[in-house]
Fold these 2 entries.
Entry 1:
Amino acid sequence: MTSTDSKPLFERMALIGAGLIGSSLARVVRRDGLAGHIAVAARSQATLDTMTDLGLADSATLDAAEAVRDADLIVLCTPLGTYEAIAKTIASALKPGAIVSDVGSCKESMFTDVAPHLPDGVHMVPGHPVAGTEHSGPEAGFAELFDGRWCILTPVPDTDQDAVDKVADLWRQCGMDVEIMDAAHHDQVLALTSHLPHLIAYTIVGTATDLEDDLKKEVFKYSASGFRDFTRIAASDPVMWRDILIKNSSAVLDVLGRFTEDLTSLQRAIRRGEAGTLEDHFTRTRAIRRGVIDAKQD
Amino acid sequence: MTSTDSKPLFERMALIGAGLIGSSLARVVRRDGLAGHIAVAARSQATLDTMTDLGLADSATLDAAEAVRDADLIVLCTPLGTYEAIAKTIASALKPGAIVSDVGSCKESMFTDVAPHLPDGVHMVPGHPVAGTEHSGPEAGFAELFDGRWCILTPVPDTDQDAVDKVADLWRQCGMDVEIMDAAHHDQVLALTSHLPHLIAYTIVGTATDLEDDLKKEVFKYSASGFRDFTRIAASDPVMWRDILIKNSSAVLDVLGRFTEDLTSLQRAIRRGEAGTLEDHFTRTRAIRRGVIDAKQD
């Protein structure tokens, strides 16, 4: 679909925040003419200038309320910790029938931090495009980021179906497969598949940071033996991940509890030299890899 | 160097074990004519048949003592837990001046499990080519596996220099950069860069295995968000890793202790909503990634 041969999906789309995800979305919207006008709001003038220079913003402002005025789609692309303040700022500027969505990794946040501030007649369709890299900022974005990945939407059952369909259409245009899920369930699944792995990678890389200097140098040198994968994950945006772990703390602490129980039991097996316990455990995990490959996520 | 235009590095090389590493080494030795004869010993006839079919074994036997007879280089390519039994089996068949080496991930094992059984006049040069994939078995090998990676040798200071040089030459022919290091220091460095990451990956993937079936299916589906990297690591050979963690338990338990302290402190910060603690920690780890990239390990 392009704006020249048919009506765009949205007349005016407002992006609040333009980092890796926001700028990647803007690239697809621009490429395929999915919005008549892209309004970008960001905290820093530098981000706005970059988006304008990249040709991804028809208007750019430091004032989120100004960006959302007359927009039929608003997408929050900022760290979860900013949601409540943004919701308060934009609430009175939203037009009736506008759709408010987001791209955050914890979906309950939309219900606790955003929904209470939205006026009647505005539709909330929380979204999570499950895609990313360890890079951040508007220059790190690219239109193919979403291709072949999942996008999870977590509207409540009585959400306006047209609004849900339009947001789903937007992500399908980005090349994503769209799933509808309960927000709490989403947060539980992602706590294990994403939030816990990031927390652990951040932890082990931090443990290395605290080593004496000569040992640390060797840790870099021989990182190809496993550690390297963790350093890549632990290079992700610190503020984004700080907010995810705090906003989804309940689900994260639950899976973290399970993980540390399992780790303690393996630690005990190592200390006691229980070869059979270790081998059994490590054999079971091989099957999981097969499951991941079968699910075409590799 | 090829066998046609000069004397091979070794007249007879005995590989004890022919999995990913052993068969990859055999491929390089064959390709470059580094040994006049490759004798392969393995536990299973199937492995021997595969090595013979691949043209990588000039002789193949289930009896390690037979393989090492008259060999000037013996390389143990089996899980660490087999070292002591193999050392006892081959000791009396070793010829004077023979070099005994290995490819194991814990280097103290050679001193505790192998050295006490070797006759006088035999040179021990422990080695660790820091390379691998999550695949195993003789078919999984390939000659380029070692290219551009590190090989760490851990001879004691009074080891015969010619023996050390010949083993170093072998790995350089494989494309590796060779480092000499103290065995205990090696085990400490690898505990952090390799053994702990594997243990953690095995643990978290195991935690997922214990989930209810419907949740588990979704964990596969959305694994691209971080979990996927862990499943790849956790698909490594269970017996090999069982032995590494048990043989290097002292260094592994030490770094595991540091890791769990750090994890507990981050867990506490999440539970108490201490945003600053998390952000500070996550910001520090970004610098480490830069160190890894500078060390050209990515």
Entry 2:
Amino acid sequence: MLNVITLAEAEAVARSLGERTKLNTTEVPLSGACGRILAEPLRNKENVPAFRRSTIDGYALFAPDSYGASESSPVPLLITGEVLMGQAAEMKGKKGACVRIPTGGMLPEGYNAVIPVEYTEEDGFGNCLLSKSVSPLENVTNVGDDVKEGETILPAGTLLAPLHIGVLAAAGFAEVPVIKKLKVGVISTGNEIVGVEQNPLPGQVRDVNTHLLSALCEQMHCEVTSYGVIADEKTVFTDTLLRAANENDAVLLSGGSSAGTMDLTAETIDAAGDLFVHGVAVKPGKPTLIGRVGNSAVFGLPGHPAAAYFITLSVVKAFIEAVYGIDMPEKTVTARLTEHVSSNHGREEFLCVSLKNSDATPVYGKSGVISQLTRSDGYLLISRNSEGLAAGTAVTVRLFGEGII
Amino acid sequence: MLNVITLAEAEAVARSLGERTKLNTTEVPLSGACGRILAEPLRNKENVPAFRRSTIDGYALFAPDSYGASESSPVPLLITGEVLMGQAAEMKGKKGACVRIPTGGMLPEGYNAVIPVEYTEEDGFGNCLLSKSVSPLENVTNVGDDVKEGETILPAGTLLAPLHIGVLAAAGFAEVPVIKKLKVGVISTGNEIVGVEQNPLPGQVRDVNTHLLSALCEQMHCEVTSYGVIADEKTVFTDTLLRAANENDAVLLSGGSSAGTMDLTAETIDAAGDLFVHGVAVKPGKPTLIGRVGNSAVFGLPGHPAAAYFITLSVVKAFIEAVYGIDMPEKTVTARLTEHVSSNHGREEFLCVSLKNSDATPVYGKSGVISQLTRSDGYLLISRNSEGLAAGTAVTVRLFGEGII
């Protein structure tokens, strides 16, 4: 078990846990594949086009038959038929002969070029007179020119977006092999926590974290199960954690604000499995725990919603990205600080800011959760080595409410 | 009916149709509210905090009772009780007396300040000796300091992200009034179009657009119904369009590649309703139609999947943004062209590009749909007034596969 570590070290521990988390593959219909992650490279099942196709209106022929043709000495070829658009060319190509063909038409077997209609003339006796020679494959799209059979069209690990859905439709994938969603169990703890529909009595607060963390994890492509709010009581705590760890690939426990809850969480993880991280040098977010119970990763998150949000978007996101093998960057903008921000000497700090044009003004959380978050547009992370940031410093602001891509 | 217009003009027509499309309100549980759009401003139902709260451990008192207290002449106040954490303060505050109070504890009615424990001493006879004076509201969070009752916490039209879900939980909204999803019907037309699960015969192609456009519209917060692939036949065409227009707020018809299909679509819209736009000066995407049938907006899109994609992300997106009153920016990066791109004299052009570091290389679509799209990372829009773009020009590339926010 490590002592207090940096945020980057905590993310590295989370990533290494994620790399060891294996998810099974499942098949979903194409209509449900958007937003899922491809489990294996998809190879094209056929050549596209599957046949030689003319790129112009003209006559399909065997190229060497045209050699030597010119306006002064046209070469005659017997017209033996016509290829129709959207139909297979059933005839076989014969030397010394040709067939009429439209743009997009299929070349008969044995033919390898098309002469444009403007370099020909029909003589009224069933012959086509060529006034120019053509080379093999001239005016022809060859088999597999778009995609060859067996060629990889999308690599494993692709996060499927609408455009990929179009590509899969074109390539004939009605069912798509995707990685099963990461199953995440969410547990809120604390004697003072009441349901959203309740009116908190003095000293009580509503359960924000179950809802906040569930929405965040669903946005990060996870399947979330809520285990509700449980009391700060060792037996209940242990039973719920073991059940959630058994039923999920990861468990997020978000504790009350008390130090006692963090200790209880740490002891429970340590007793039921392994505790790897006990405290992170970041403000807010110090009471962060990382461990494992059975095959499930376990994250103990701070009780304060803003802190739980920041740690989920750093440590838990690093874990999920490693499991899926994808990046989920937050949307950022560059802005200038409107006022001085003091430093924290040795621990990083998440700072809420409001944005106006390109000005970022710190929003401090003295007066409570709701107003701090609704008055902010995003947040920034101040380096642990920072000596404070002067007014006018350019900072990268990660945007709230813009989702994760 | 307008003749060929610019892309910006087409987007303006779409926006004005969108502004006239009214969607009803529905209530959803908080767990299903992420990604939905708030139908009305949400006002806080209560003051937070709902009671005066101590920010420190100390003694709650009536501030004027402390005036004149100093280390050399401490003021004694009778200790009449203790406020417990998480419980209502049932006692009433009396002048000349005080009660013990913990951090976060509720101030008894009649008291208006808290003196820190370190400026006090208990005398063993039931009195607390104050060695300093405190002002009214000193060390107290007042009623409504976080949010006042009736204050707007989220405005109408907010696209709800995880953080908003947290704010709604804190404010006690278990049910959330949201705008009903825009209902979009998708129709693919063309005799040559076959299902994804089929092997296309020569001249046939698989139905890409139903899947591509459905995924795209779902990502843009719409509820999509597919009407399948219908033949280029007037009666079938009219019947399906009327049915889809009756059942949806918008209909996307994506035609085959032929000019005949575009004309049939235009005639059908004109006969059943109003046709506002017939052709847009953009490449690819010229055969774009905008009209209205009954209360439904109707968009005729090009048959080529890349063109249908580009027009959906410009014209149809402008419509959806206007309906919902939100912006859905595509994710962009700035890159430099690696080669010269020729101009189009008077019409805008969408150009696929592949990205490597910050270099953008044009990907032309000669060899077909699949390889063009899988070899590209995004696209750019070249202005109709451009005289061509030189190698090295900085361009804004809209990214494929990164979704819409």
